[in-house]
Specification:
The chain is mainly alpha-helical. The chain contains 12 helices and 4 strands. The termini are far apart.
């Protein structure tokens, strides 16, 4: 991978663009990364392209399917960005993908909500009503949305590191110190980019699984759906097991997403979700005179 080294004041725009395309192509062509990413995408698209949804309840299931299609598109945008070393920008796309995935769960449960989502740009009341009912994270704190909690926990991380202009986003561009000067780079290092890419593929499998849980009660039939799901699970497991083995041999942690998928232990991610909810929950007010809650 052609990392931009801290040897001079700046890299040219042409160098930056060429390095992005070169690194993205190299990293996405590595096996078993290519096989796992392709399998997740194929499983996702197999359901979206071939599923016949129950239309007896109006437009809500088809609208939820549209939201999941947009989730898939955003995930696809993230992969080459992350593979090319632009993990911060890729996180923003992953965050949008997760948001579509979460909104689909809400949309599929309510015909009114589906109509409100479709009219958010033209109807201020519909927009306010929809955002009030679907705001992340508090609107998903009920047990029925537990399958989304790990995704929402990652959404919180992506917000801090990939969306907002804060210190976490700056730290992703740090490129070391040379001759007493601090350098920053447009790209992540080769190793960091590969780790981020593997995480993004694992996250895509989580999103695919969430889509199945959201839409499966309303799918009347889907051609080759089970075959593509098995292929995706096998390819992602192969990738993450190989990654975990390499990380352990080099004295590093396999990573939270890899560990969660391989072990089935989602408690660390669910705990992060609960912390996220707590931060955004209204705090009780106290009387300034007596100190009692009001």
């Amino acid at each position: 991978m052609a990392d931009i080294q801290p040897t001079r004041r700046f890299a040219s725009l042409t160098e930056i663009i060429n390095a992005y395309y070169r690194n993205s192509s190299i990293n996405l062509s590595r096996e078993p990364i290519t096989r796992a990413a392709e399998a997740v995408h194929c499983a996702w698209q197999t359901v979206l392209a071939n599923a016949v949804l129950d239309g007896a309840d109006g437009i809500r299931h088809d609208t939820a399917g549209l939201a999941h299609l947009m989730a898939n598109y955003a995930w696809l945008e993230a992969l080459p960005l992350i593979a090319g070393g632009y993990s911060v920008t890729g996180l923003a796309a992953l965050r949008r993908s997760i948001e579509f995935c979460c909104l689909a769960a809400k949309i599929s449960a309510s015909e009114e909500r589906a109509n409100d989502w479709l009219n958010t740009t033209s109807d201020t009341k519909a927009r306010a009503r929809f955002h009030r009912q679907c705001r992340i994270p508090n609107a998903y704190n009920r047990e029925q949305y537990r399958y989304l909690w790990p995704l929402i926990a990652f959404y919180d991380i992506a917000s801090d590191c990939g969306v907002h202009a804060n210190v976490q986003a700056v730290s992703g561009s740090f490129n070391g110190v040379n001759d007493g000067r601090i350098f920053f780079t447009h790209q992540r290092s080769q190793e960091d980019a590969l780790v981020d890419l593997i995480d993004a593929i694992g996250l895509g499998f989580w999103e695919y699984s969430a889509m199945i849980q959201t839409l499966s009660p309303h799918i009347k039939e889907v051609e080759s759906g089970e075959d593509s799901e098995r292929a995706a699970r096998a390819a992602v497991t192969e990738l993450l097991e190989g990654f975990a083995d390499y990380q352990k041999r080099t004295g590093k942690s396999p990573g939270d997403i890899a560990q969660a998928i391989l072990t089935g232990n989602l408690e660390p991610w669910e705990s992060r979700f609960r912390e996220f909810v707590e931060r955004f929950s209204p705090k009780p007010r106290k009387c300034p005179k007596c100190g009692h809650e009001i």
